Amino acid sequence: MSTARYIVGDSLTVLRSMEDASVDLVLSSPPFLALRSYLPADHPDKAKEIGSEPTPGAFIDTLLDIVEECRRVLAPHGSLAFELGDTYSGSGGAGGDYGDDGMRAGQPEFQGSAVRNKPGYGGFAGGKRNRNGTQGGPGWPLDKSLCLIPELFRIALVYGFNPLTGRQTPRWRARNVVRWHRPNPPVGALGDKFRPATSDMVIVCMSGRRYFDLDAARTPLTEPDAVKRHSTEQRNPRQGWDSNNAEIRQNPAGAPPLDTWVIPTAPYKGAHYATFPPALCERPIKAMCPIRVCRRCGEPSRRITEATDDYAQHLGSSWADRSDGRTKADGRERNSHSGQPVGDHIVAASRTTLGWTDCGHDDWRNGVTLDPFAGSGTTLAVATGHGRDAVGIDLDERNADLAYERIGMFLTVEHHESPEAVA
After folding, report:
1. pTM (two decimals)
2. pLDDT per position as a tens digit, 39-81
3. DSSP secondary structure string, 170-223?
4. I need a surface site. Which of 113, 143, 381, 389 has the fewest CB within 10 A?
5. Distance CA 300, CA 241 (A)
6. Helix (H, G, I), strand (E, B), or coil: what is residue 292?
7. Nearest residue to 246 (alpha-carbon basis) of 264, 273, 222, 228
8. Is 368 helix (H, G, I), strand (E, B) or coil?
């Protein structure tokens, strides 16, 4: 049975209390810089709220503090996936989102980055104007410019330093940058720009042999048994495709997801106003959080596959052939480009699952997904719904009630100050 813990407290403080290598996937969406305020002004932990840093460089340093602790609690085979949006310099916050018809109508509006350019704000030198007449404090781009927060964050992770502050940090391997495209974005304030509808999810790991199960995240086929043939116009003499024989065969397991995910924002009736759509969490959890992990050696159980007979007979002296340890399936002429028989073309490798690896210790735990900015608990709900355990952290105790409404008896709520929260 899957379980979830929701720990109320400061993310960095709680992370520092967690055991090394105790989670398998970190999946979260940190608060964005200067876009909105979550806690009431009189909240005792208001100063710990992330997103109110004086500069983009300071904001990225704060994220790196979190990421470094996530790295410690992450198992060697684990991955980290952070969805992060951008901020306009000199903006007034989330604009029309807070209007009467906006998606955040009635919620507390954040002042945005423009407040940092006002005289008297401690983060800048009196709000002086640049020589070109546009107002902007040190450490910020020109007014109306994107800050490029997601790009700067990725550079810091991959190259090991924050390019804005020089702060050093351990290096990661970037495996994907997924672009989340919302077909139904809020209108907001447009002015002289196109309507923003995307944000990035960077996926990084420590090991070159991380856990990744592509078959678990494939998109089901609409026509599983369909076989298409190339027309004469599609014939490719260089690769030996014969219009009378060339086929497109589909992997019955489904199509691998692209790195652009078209996922609409999901309606949510709760009080939290920056919720993940569940569909955005499903692919990372199914692909990167193992179903079970050995408690003794820490190795996850991995899917074992082999080429199906139909696919294997078409393998030539290509990389796929060599990786399976096969020789050419028959004596037919092969093209030099891919090693496939002349006259045949297969665009998808069809493989079948034989089973799962077993280290032999017979002492398993569920895979664990961690969300250090848990909010209303979407990540936790999706993880437990797919047979994984989950841990969520959030500074706002009101969100714990929202998460409990979504997860129910599978969720335990703890406060970091209590002994059980650090056990």
Report:
1. 0.79
2. 777 777 778 888 889 999 999 999 999 999 999 999 999 999 9
3. ---EEEEEEEEE-SS------TTS----EEEEEEEES-TT----GGGGPBPPSS
4. 143
5. 41
6. strand
7. 228
8. strand
What is the distance between the alpha carbons of residues 271 and 299, in angstroms, rounded to a whole number? 40
How crowded is the C-beta side of 391, counted as CA atoms within 13 Å?
Answer: 26
Q: Which secondary structure element, helix H or strand E, spans residue 293, and what is its range?
A: strand 292-294
Query: Domains plus CATH for the chain?
Result: 11-215+256-300+363-391 (3.40.50.150), 227-254+305-354 (no CATH)
d(C-alpha 315, C-alpha 186), whole Å: 49
Task: Say whether 321 sits in a helix, a strand or coil.
Answer: helix
Please give the structure tokens belonging to residue 130: 């640049």
Residue-level pLDDT at 326: 45
The residue length of the chain stands at: 423
Structure-token pair, residue 266: 């999901």
- How far apart, in whole angstroms, are the C-alpha atoms of residue 116 and residue 112? 8
Find the helix or strand (DSSP H, E) in which 385 lies: helix 378-385
pLDDT digits (tens, 9 = 90+) for 158-203: 999 999 999 999 999 999 999 999 998 877 667 888 988 999 999 9
Please list the residues that pair with 303 across neighbouring strands: 356
Find how far residue 407's CA is from the centre of its chain: 21
